[in-house]
Design brief:
Strand content: 25-35%
Oligomer: single chain
Number of helices: 2
CATH architecture of the largest domain: Sandwich
Order of helices and strands: EEEEEEEEHEEEEHEEEEEEEEE
CATH class of the largest domain: Mainly Beta
Structural class: mainly beta
Largest sheet: 7 strands, mixed
CATH topology of the largest domain: Immunoglobulin-like
Number of domains: 2
């Protein structure tokens, strides 16, 4: 009977031994050869039914490429889907490979089921969680890219190599791991100071600032809004539409306006927020003649930039 693994996947025993060159010891000031002999080991679970989940892992091992010395390499994992003709569609963007977020410095990895599923969803082209369709068990390929990274975080020229082979898992199922850009809401007199709640969700759809597609998880939000002439221009931001007293973010805690001005069409300042305390102060720019304003809200650096276009 075929078994489906829904929790932590069993550690996979490598069929081929790892080379001793994966040790941390290395010669001082060595010169790297063009790397060769880079193979992934077979998996004893390749034929099993594997249901990916956010909290399980897939084990993979490989040999270190032959750099001519015991190099401290950095390894990245790429995911692909295998079709009925045994052709592999690798996860790429504009012709460049897309690797999983987690990198490794040893010749083995317990790869996050969430990361693999996210990559499969990416290959399938799902743009948001609502577009996801469960495609069941499919054959999934994994391969490894190795390179040597310098102290500045850059790849040393000539040290990159993709594994000579790839391994596949014949029956692997993803789940809805689509990552969409997060967003926040602008709330103020441009929106008529309408209550930020679920009843006004349709109104606030047009007043959202989003993360960029390639910055998902950054907590940096961008938006451009056409705002009519208004005196004064006042607003703050909300993470969710849960009413006035929850998830608010502004220039101060007190529920009042902070007078601000545009300097040559640009304002740079700070924003106050945290998960348990809410800040209902609002930016107050006085009379605004109307026009387009581009906003950037960086919640990691707690900074804002507002630019009149």
């Amino acid at each position: 009977m075929k078994k489906i693994y829904n929790s932590l996947l069993l550690a996979m025993v490598a069929v081929l031994p790892m080379l001793t060159s994966c040790s941390d010891d290395h010669d001082s000031n060595p010169t790297a050869n063009a790397p060769t002999e880079f193979k992934i080991n077979a998996s004893p679970l390749a034929e099993q039914y594997i249901q990916l989940a956010a909290d399980n892992t897939v084990n993979l091992t490989w040999s270190q490429p032959n750099y001519g010395f015991n190099a401290m390499a950095t390894y990245q994992i790429q995911v692909g889907l295998v079709d009925a003709s045994n052709n592999v569609t690798w996860n790429e963007k504009e012709g460049a490979p897309k690797y999983l977020k987690t990198t490794y410095t040893t010749c083995k990895a317990d790869i996050s089921g969430d990361e693999i599923a996210e990559s499969i969803c990416d290959i399938d082209g799902f743009k948001d969680v609502d577009s996801y369709v469960d495609k069941g068990f499919r054959e999934v390929a994994l391969r490894v890219y190795s390179s040597i990274i310098d102290n500045s975080g850059n790849e040393v020229a000539g040290t990159g190599i993709i594994s000579d082979n790839y391994v596949t898992f014949k029956h692997m199922a993803a789940f809805n791991a689509v990552k969409s850009p997060a967003y926040i809401y602008l709330v103020g007199n441009p929106t008529g100071w309408q209550t930020p709640n679920a009843g006004n969700a349709d109104l606030y759809k047009d007043w959202r600032l989003y993360e960029k597609d390639d910055e998902i998880g950054s907590d940096i939000y961008y938006g451009t809004f056409d705002i009519p002439a208004i005196d004064p221009l006042q607003f703050r931001f909300y993470r969710e539409l849960l009413g006035w007293d929850l998830t608010s973010m502004g220039p101060q805690e007190e529920d009042s306006g902070v007078d601000c001005t545009f300097d040559n069409g640009k304002y740079e300042g700070s924003i106050m927020w945290d998960k348990e305390k809410f800040y209902k102060g609002s930016w107050n720019f006085g009379a605004f003649d109307g026009g387009s304003i581009t906003m950037k809200v960086d919640l990691k650096k707690k900074s804002v930039v507002f630019t009149i276009n």
